[in-house]
Write a structure and sequence with these properties.
Layout: E1 5-10, E2 19-20, E3 34-35, E4 38-46, E5 66-76, E6 89-96, E7 113-119, E8 124-129, E9 139-146, E10 152-160, E11 165-170, E12 173-174, E13 177-183, E14 186-191, E15 193-195, E16 206-222, E17 232-234, E18 241-243, H1 244-250, H2 267-272, E19 287-290, E20 297-303, E21 311-317, E22 325-326, E23 331-332, E24 339-345, E25 354-359
Antiparallel strand pairs: 1-7, 1-16, 2-16, 3-4, 4-5, 5-16, 6-10, 6-16, 7-8, 8-9, 10-11, 11-12, 11-15, 13-14, 17-18, 19-20, 20-24, 21-22, 21-23, 21-25
Length: 361
Amino acid sequence: MKKLNVLAFASAMLAVGAYGAFENFESGGAEGSTFANWEGDGYITNTSVTCTYGVPGGQSVGANAKALLVEGSVTNATLFSGMAASTASQVDMMVKIVWPDEALALPSGETDVQIAVGIDQLGQLNVYCAPKSGEGAAAFVPVTGELASNEWKRVSFNFDYANKFCEVSVDGIPCVSSSGAFSPSAVGSDGAWYKLAKADATKLSSMKVVGTTAIDDVYTGQSSEPLPFDGTVADSGTGAAVSRQWLVVQGVADVTAAAPDGTGMTVAQKYVAGLNVNDGIKFELKDLQPSTSDATKMVFSFPGTTANGSTFELQGSDSPNGTYSAVTGTFTAGTAGANNTIAVDVSQLTGVKYFKVVASN
């Protein structure tokens, strides 16, 4: 029977080293065995741990052929020893996704949980947190769609103790939901920052894994900077390679989704245009008029962008759904809020009826 799978961070106990893997331990073990300060119902198993997106903590995983299999619960009471109170903290680790047979709930007797994540019976990752407004009881809320059973995922946490929030990411992508805030100081918009269930928490002190699952490559640290995510996510619509770090900063996950500011642009289109997903700016061609000073030219107008220095080009097509190609060379967009203009020879526009401005870098 696959029991409920919960990963809980608490502050009741005294809070592995900065980085914990299991390559140096013999396979096997029994109940009560200790592996790198993990105690409980677990043993070392030979397994292939697949890091599809980076390595927790930026460390080397070496052969990466062993992990800690959990069948019941394991606890680490020294994982966060030496950490300073009221300081931003990070936890980064690999977790094997296993769908449970039981409904998702906190481990029995746990009353001091700051935040927890768990897989529900639909294969969704849930976060146990307080309502982002700070009012009401803590509960599990789903923050991802269905995750494939038996796959390894990199699960990462950024704890902000100044505001009592924690950012949760899977494979470097923030877990955005309506229960999460856009940032610890902007709770009105959806995001990946979740309110700690324990309002007076100032530091991490213990970690407990409950269920039938496996963990590996556990990294912990303290820094005012977020976890160093890098790499890109491909967007089929624009062909853009969207920065994962940008997604984390923006608090969004799906590059094909509509940007939350209501401009009608997708997240990927915002990235390509050098905009922020909540800035309310729609980068598009605004106007086309004959030049008042040169009858051989047409003047195109478009808004400035927050990404000063980004280069753009005017593209044209003979039909709205046809292939667009460059009409002009590249140009640099100006200051956000200001109108930009570019003059184009009429001879360049032969047969072109539809136009758009796109980023060229």
